[in-house]
Amino acid sequence: MSETSKPTLQADALEHSFGTGESRVDVLRGVALQLQPGQITLLMGPSGSGKTVLLALLSGLMRPRAGQVTVLGQNLWRMSDGQRRRFRLAHFGFIFQASLLFPGLTIGQQLEMVLRWGDGMSISAARPWIKTALERFDLADKHDRFPEQLSGGEKQRVGIARALIRHPDVCFADEPTASLDWGHGQQVVAQLVTTARERGTSVLLVTHDIRLAAFADRVLYLEDGQFTNQPHAAVLGSAELPQAQGNNV
Amino acid sequence: MYSHRPYALTILWHERKRYLPAVLAVTFSTVLIGLQGGLLLGQVVYSSFAIDHTSADLWVVPPDANSPMLAEPVPESWLLRLASQPEISRAEVYYLGQGHWHKPGTGAREACVVIGSRLDDDSLGAVHQMSPAMRTRLTEPGTVAVIAADLPTFGLENADGVGAEINGQRVRVVGTISGFRGALYPHMFCSLETARRLFPTFLHPLTSFVLARCRHPQDVPVLAARLREAYPDMATYTTDEFSVRTRNYWLFRTRLGTVLVCTVALALLVGGVVTSETLLAAVRASLREFALLDAMGLPRLRLVCLVLAQSWWIGLIGVLFALPIIFILAQAAEWTNTHVLLTPALLVGTPLVDLVLAVLSGVAALRSLREAEPGVLLR
Fold first, then answer.
1. Among A25, A173, B63, B260, which lies 20 to 30 A Cα-Cα from B196?
2. Which residues neighbour B283 within 8 Å (Cβ) at sequence distance 6 or greater?
3. Cβ–Cβ of B2/A61 closer than 8 Å?
4. Bridge partners, residue A173, by sequence
5. pLDDT digits (tens, 9 = 90+) for A10-57
6. ipTM rounded to 2 decimals
7. What is the pTM of this model?
8. Which residue of A has its CA nearest to B373?
9. CATH code for the structural domain at A9-18+25-236
10. Shortest Cα distance from B355 to chain A (angstroms)?
11. Alpha-carbon gap: A202 to the closest alpha carbon of chain B (Å)
12. B273-314 confidence digits (pLDDT tens)
């Protein structure tokens, strides 16, 4: 995907802090970035560097102290709460470290719920979508299983299928492989990346695992609330350093 | 493969161990309210059986009479007041007294109610359950009939002419009547003459009423109103009015109604608290899952409806468990001669009350859903 194509998401001069007065802690300081359609962006940084906060600001879950986030040409933080909620529903997908599946619902119902409640689909209209999603993530035979009957990797694939089933424009993934071993984590991210590229979904993947850089189109390193070209060694371990491509550095 | 099941029901079934206490609480609440209500209705209906099962249209009693057992005797001259009304086809006296039954053999005493009435075919005071043959036998002075269910209370094995004493007067039991029993005391029936013999002194006062029947049923309320206006010293009721007055007396003045209200409140409290707390814990256990749906922007109303649907299913399953239990326990109570009256209103009203209770418990549990905001995913 060309760097010059119109970005799906653009953030400018994002600042955020917690507390006030002397106890104020600046978490983000003038961060700017772009997410391109179909591009996988890895966001790395040590604990407390502000990765999760940045994800929350970009996805409309937390209001920044300053700066703006524009998604598909619309300023996210000029919308009302209701508009932003509907915008998230229409354009965003979310994946977290835990698969966050309701233990009492079958895998099919976890996906069906999103389609019915999110798009008002009828059950019969949702069926082909669910079938396609489960087949894409090698879960075709798991439709009637409950989460407890699935392995950790399978559960996370259901979580990804749920995030992508409605074809979001942007997918935010916060440590999606943190609870998986490398083999399963690699498999899960490979399927996420393949699906995102095919559909032109922009993916922001927050992770501590430098090995995932192999799947990314670019890697951003966040330290002390700013992007840097010289990541902290603790972030990288012994892995080879990919070239940082943050927009504000 | 793709058959649809309601999400709330699937969750309930899959996590049934978690939700079982709530279902059982609703069941307990429904059984308690239904049975207690049925027991009370049974007693209240019995309290007016001697009014409901007669052929009288009008009851003339002293103004302060709330119940047949608690009324003062009325002047027998009132009989003439009624007999002189053109709408009335028949008027007669009816006796009711509370006496002491001396059990045969042991001599132990048992409080009882004696009802004396005319016994001819057109009698207004004789209960319908009394057969013509029985009425004929009771015309012999000193004979009484008892309610079959009361035989053990009277210390009798059968009613085949066995002798006993009431208020020190000899009587002979010549038969039994089935189909009902007294609310508080065992009842027996006899002729007017026998009743007067059994209550000869002020030590054992005998209450008297005047009963009347109208030629045309449509005249009854009009005549009752006219008599009330013409004779303010005597209280005139239609049979239905006096029955309701008697039942209300038993229900409210004897605090039986208060007992019912307290029982219902207790049952609802237990059912409501357990259901609400169970749902609250269940929502909290899935707080992050709810938070994810919230982050995705799914309508919050859907999440609310999911919790309420769970409470609805808990209520429905709870009352479905409860209904057969109510029937079984009511039948068991009948075997011990305790009447449980399960009216259609009670059988519909009790489950409805508990369904509302369950849904309200769901509403109370919604407060935990407020904690399910995306922030919990970012910690």
1. B63
2. B290, B307, B365, B368, B369, B372
3. no
4. A95, A205
5. 999 999 998 888 888 888 999 999 999 999 999 999 888 889 999 999
6. 0.86
7. 0.78
8. A61
9. 3.40.50.300
10. 23
11. 16
12. 988 898 888 888 888 999 999 999 999 999 999 999 999 999
Q: What six digits make up the tokens of B126?
A: 């004789």
Disruptive mutation site among B296, B313, B376, B379 for chain A (greatest number of A CBs within 10 Å): B296
Report in angstroms the alpha-carbon separations of B271 from B11, B145, B347, B350.
20, 46, 18, 13
Chain B residues near any Cβ of chain A (below 8 Å): 1-2, 4-5, 7, 10-15, 286, 288-289, 291-293, 295-299, 302, 374-375, 377-378
Q: How many residues are given for chain A?
A: 249
Q: Hey, what are A109's tokens? A: 């119902």
Residue B375 to residue A92, Cβ atoms within 8 A: no
Q: How many Cβ atoms from other residues are within 10 Å of residue B292's Cβ?
A: 26
Which residue in B78, B112, B106, B103 sits closest to B92, CA to CA? Answer: B78
For every residue of B224-263, DSSP letters joined together read HHHHHHH-TTSEEEEHHHHHHHHHHIIIIITSHHHHHHHH
Compute the distance between CA of residue B147 and CA of residue B190 in angstroms, rounded to an integer.
12
- Give the DSSP H or E segment for B287: helix B287-295
Chain-centroid distance of CA A66 in Å reads 22
Q: Using an 8 Å Cβ cutoff, are A176 and A97 in contact?
A: yes
Chain B touched by A156 (CB under 8 Å): no
What is the rounded CA–CA span in Å between residue A12 and residue A67? 6
- Strand boundaries in B104-153, DSSP class E: 109-117, 143-147
- The answer to whether the Cβ–Cβ distance between A61 and B374 falls below 8 Å is yes
B3: closest CA of chain A, how far (Å): 9
CB nearest to A102's CB, from B11, B297, B374: B11
The residue among B172, B102, B97 whose CA lies nearest residue B142 is: B172
Taking the C-alpha atoms of residue B50 and residue B175, their distance in angstroms, rounded to an integer, is 18
Task: State the Cα torsion A129-A131-A133-A134 to the nearest 10°.
Answer: 160
Nearest-by-Cβ selection for A118 from B2, B292, B298: B298
* Integer Cα distance of A177 and A153 in angstroms: 9
Q: Based on C-alpha coordinates, what's the Rg of chain A? A: 18
